[in-house]
Design a protein that fits this description.
The chain has a single domain, classed as Rossmann fold (3-Layer(aba) Sandwich). Helices cover 35% and strands 21% of the residues. The longest helix is centred in the N-terminal third of the chain and has 16 residues. It has a 5-stranded parallel sheet. By secondary structure, it is of the alpha/beta class. The chain has 4 helices and 5 strands.
C-alpha cells in the first residue's frame, strides 16, 4: 500500500441497525484496496456502544487483526491525547472542527434521529452532533455520503 485513504466517519450515538455501518465500511475498504491505499478510519470516538463511532472502531480493529490495510484514528471529545476541546456542550463541536481540519479524502455521515435529553425541539430531527460534523465537512470540501437511518412516520 502506498498512501492513506482518509475516511471521516460521523454518526449518531444510538444506531439500531449497525449492519449498515459495517456494510458501507466494507465498500470503502474495497475502494481503498483498488486504489492501493490504506483505509484510515477517522472518527470521534464516542464511547456509546451502539454508535457509529464505536461500530467503526471495532470493525476497523477487526480488519487490522485480519491483515487488511486499515488503521483507526480516534479523536475523543474528552481525554484526547493532544487536544483540549473544552467543556460540554462545546467539546463535541470543537472536536468535529478539529477532525475536519485534519482533512479527509471522503466521509460518511450515518444520520439518525436526535435522542438528546437536552434537546428542546418537539419535532423529529437528525442528531445534532452528526449534523454539525457533516456541515463542517461539506464546507471544507470533503465529499460526504449521507446514510439516513431514520424516517419520520
Amino acid at each position: 500500500m502506498t498512501e492513506d485513504w482518509r475516511l471521516l466517519i460521523t454518526g449518531s450515538r444510538y444506531i439500531v441497525d449497525r449492519t449498515v455501518v459495517r456494510q458501507r465500511l466494507f465498500v470503502k475498504l474495497g475502494d481503498a484496496i483498488a486504489r492501493q491505499r490504506t483505509l484510515v478510519l477517522v472518527h470521534g470516538d464516542c464511547p456509546d456502544q451502539n454508535g457509529a463511532d464505536r461500530t467503526a472502531h471495532i470493525w476497523g480493529q477487526a480488519q487490522m487483526r485480519s491483515g487488511q490495510p486499515v488503521r483507526v484514528e480516534a479523536h475523543p471529545a474528552k481525554g484526547h491525547p493532544t487536544e483540549n476541546f473544552g467543556e460540554w456542550p462545546q467539546a463535541g463541536p470543537n472536536r468535529n472542527t478539529f477532525m475536519v481540519g485534519l482533512g479527509a479524502d471522503e466521509g460518511i455521515a450515518f444520520l439518525d434521529r436526535c435522542t438528546s435529553l437536552r434537546c428542546r425541539r418537539p419535532d423529529a430531527h437528525p442528531s445534532h452532533g452528526t449534523s454539525d460534523c457533516l456541515r463542517k465537512a461539506v464546507a471544507a470540501g470533503i465529499p460526504m455520503e449521507t446514510v439516513e437511518l431514520w424516517r419520520e412516520f
